[in-house]
Amino acid sequence: MSVLEVTNLVKHFPIHGGLLQRQVGAVRAVDGVSFSIAKGETLGLVGESGCGKSTIGKTVLKLIEPTSGRIVLGGEDITALRPGAMWPHRKRIQTIFQDPYSSMNPRLSAGTIVGEPLENFGIARGRERDERVARLFERVGLRPDAMRKYAHEFSGGQRQRLGIAKALSVSPDVIVADEPVSALDVSVQAQVLNLLIDLQEELGLAYLFISHDLAVMRHISHRIAVMYLGRIVELTDKRTLFTNPLHPYTEALLSAATAPDPRRAKRKKAIVQGDVPSPANPPPGCHFHTRCPYATPECKVTAPPLREVAPGHHVACLLR
Amino acid sequence: MTALLEVRDLHTQFNTLDGVVRAVDGVSFDLASGETLGIVGESGCGKSVTALSILRLIPPETGRISAGSILFEGNDLAKLGEQEMKRLRGHRISMIFQEPMTSLNPVLTIGTQIAENVVRHLGVPWKAARERACEMLDLVRISDARRRLGEYPHQLSGGMRQRVMIAMALSCDPQVLIADEPTTALDVTVQAQILDLMLELKEKTGTAIVLITHDLGVVAETTQRVVVMYAGRKVEEAPVLALFDNPLHPYTRGLMRAIPRLDLDLEQAGTRPRLQEIPGLVPRLTQPIIGCAFASRCELATDRCRAEAPPVIDAGGGHTVACWEARP
Predict the structure, then answer these.
(1) Do A269 and B192 meet the contact criterion of CB atoms below 8 Å apart?
(2) Could you tell me if the ipTM is greater than 0.90?
(3) Does B277 touch chain A (CB under 8 A)?
């Protein structure tokens, strides 16, 4: 049973212009996206900048309102909930950011920061809160006496552990992790990825894991959705995605990724040319047709639907 | 091999509120003409400061090259006057950075910016310099080059801006191009295009490249020789195949085991193997490091490692490692 189900999610940001600041267009950041995540599962959202992956994260967290579509969290429709009504549901869906430092009050101690949600949700106060925070610190690999320190006294990896502890404090079912290891050095990145996997296996957490890094994605995800300009172009389990990619964009991403193996290299890798078009003015038909090496005239006019071509393997391409 | 650039025992320091930071602490390496040398390491290892030192771009208010030499075309860049450095920069040695937008002037057209460099260094008239700028944009495969000359940086995408930076850097046929994380801010598909372009241009122009990156994948696919840095020191140097086939320093080995891999066989369905962690943190560079800089995180460390700086061991074939415990 899925803990998070998203159906036909759309998020358009209006563009205002002209003398009267009328709406003159819209950035179609998310353009009809559907997926679900089961308990204990990691769904990876991968794509390049502007593909809408972070907007999906913010929308399912209800930090921004969807334009249309449906978000069901643990069986309850939260799509239209106003901030007040959303409040009790926030315990069940938490987030980890790329740069946890920017979300931490520099004048509060680390213990206070991590313990804040416990007080806000009326879960624990005073000594009980402190004890819980100490346990959380231990769980994420920080020494409990670090509770008295301030955010600036921690290294990047330790701050990410603080961010994880804070997200875990209210025992959520789902964690939206938006590029949680992108700012970290490789050796520290490994520590945080291992921690996230351990916590998932221990607590049955579901992760919506957003990243541009295919190798990280392959390591942590069970299933992966590849996004391009607001749409999912391919969605399948990771083994299938990496061994039998069907969408030309997935192919391009995989061949463009570098690998730490000098023998693999020394060949032409860039099979697509140019940059990603602007999501304010996406190409008609299949969004990828302007860069696709296989595009046909049909691709320029018809937007391909996401079809299930094999059990669990969904592709949006007219040619596959 | 005659070296084009010889860096010897380079020390660069910064004065901070916490004390003197030894950002580069005795680094030596050579760059041969026409080769691609990678400098790899994690944040704070001194790789970018090494590059800035070569170009003498260390801000004099806070930092200085405190010892060592940088020999290039018969001059020691560490001691050269600012006027002479100005004649070298952008001409004999060029540099491109991670974020092209911060290196481009937002109020000048890209044609003017490229031509400016050509006028200044080659002394040609503006008209000829603009022709050269047009050729350079063609060379970095910006379509419709003549029209693009009149555009401003904000009108270009991130990948295009990096192409403009490369065009500018190569406009005076430099001997050395220093590229500091040139593709880190770019999307994967654009990164592949830029790396391909840099290698292709290197073949065409014979410019030697120093590629500074944290990304072992980029190093593996683009460089011929690699210097691995840790805490301001060079811990290992090797031809790229030797480094990846047989990494000798415990830090290099640790890094290679810590990265998630795309190219290896998929694990058993349902299981996710643990990545190898490097425990602990990089040492603070405000205190002098006694012994090996990596000793506090190294599983092989002995008392000798903590007391005495390791010797540089020659493993043959241009592969050297600074470690007491490495067994070549």
Answers:
(1) yes
(2) no
(3) yes
